[in-house]
Design a protein that fits this description.
Rossmann fold
Length: 233
């Protein structure tokens, strides 16, 4: 999923068994709406070949599979073997009506795919943990077909001081204590420092253009605490 050191890979391997459960609990299930938005904005069509980069336990990949039908293909790529193991165990609904999903262990900074391979791409909660964001977007640009879109969902540090306070309060008094009940205090405490280093939506747009994308828009969600970057090759 990420090339941000052995430590980050260890975090995602460690949280894999309860990753979905905590996402549902801590977002009150709303994360599924945001993921659906990302899938829609990536514009998968029936029969498309799709990439879900930093796929984790496979939420977005499964949503893409339902969109492209049995004639399409979905590749879920992650560098965490434990996350991919969870994805493999998902019970695929109506096998004859969705595309096959190929789960691939790979690095987001060096993808094992040919140039101009994918019709669209999604990425959920991965870019913030990438050690080299410009290189990641360059790789994404390389493997997308001309005119293809990618939608990248992630947490952000909001510009509003009041919302920044609320976000920090929520992380300190809700997220980390809940995670501690699962023995994951350190693994979820990393979120706050990762947000302070993550480029703003405007900066992400600049990086996308530098990577070669012809169009880039960033859509803030819930006051900028979340956001989706939509980029077109």
């Amino acid at each position: 999923m990420i090339d941000n050191s052995t430590e980050v890979k260890a975090i995602f391997n460690k949280i894999a068994p309860v990753y979905d459960q905590l996402n549902n609990l801590l977002s009150l299930g709303i994360h599924k709406i945001w993921k659906h938005m990302a899938v829609v904005w990536s514009e998968p069509n029936y029969g498309s070949t799709c990439l879900d980069l930093c796929c984790g336990s496979g939420d977005l990949a499964c949503m893409l599979a339902k969109c492209v039908g049995p004639t399409g293909q979905v590749f879920g790529v992650d560098f965490s073997l434990e996350q991919l193991a969870i994805a493999h165990k998902r019970q695929p609904p109506l096998l004859d009506k969705i595309s096959p999903i190929h789960w691939v262990e790979a690095n987001a900074l060096s993808l094992p795919f040919a140039d101009n391979y994918f019709d669209c791409a999604t990425m959920g909660y991965g870019l913030r943990n990438i050690s080299d964001i410009p290189l990641c977007l360059q790789e994404l640009y390389r493997v997308l077909k001309p005119n293809a879109k990618a939608a990248i969902l992630d947490m952000h540090c909001p510009s509003s001081s009041a919302l920044r306070w609320f976000q920090q309060w929520y992380l300190d008094t809700v997220v980390v204590p809940v995670a501690s009940n699962f023995g994951l205090t350190q693994q979820y405490a990393y979120i706050s420092p990762s947000l302070t280093k993550f480029p703003t939506g405007k900066k992400q747009i600049d990086i996308a253009y530098q990577a070669g994308f012809v169009n880039a828009k960033h859509y803030p969600i819930i006051g900028g605490m979340m956001g989706i970057l939509v980029i077109t090759k």
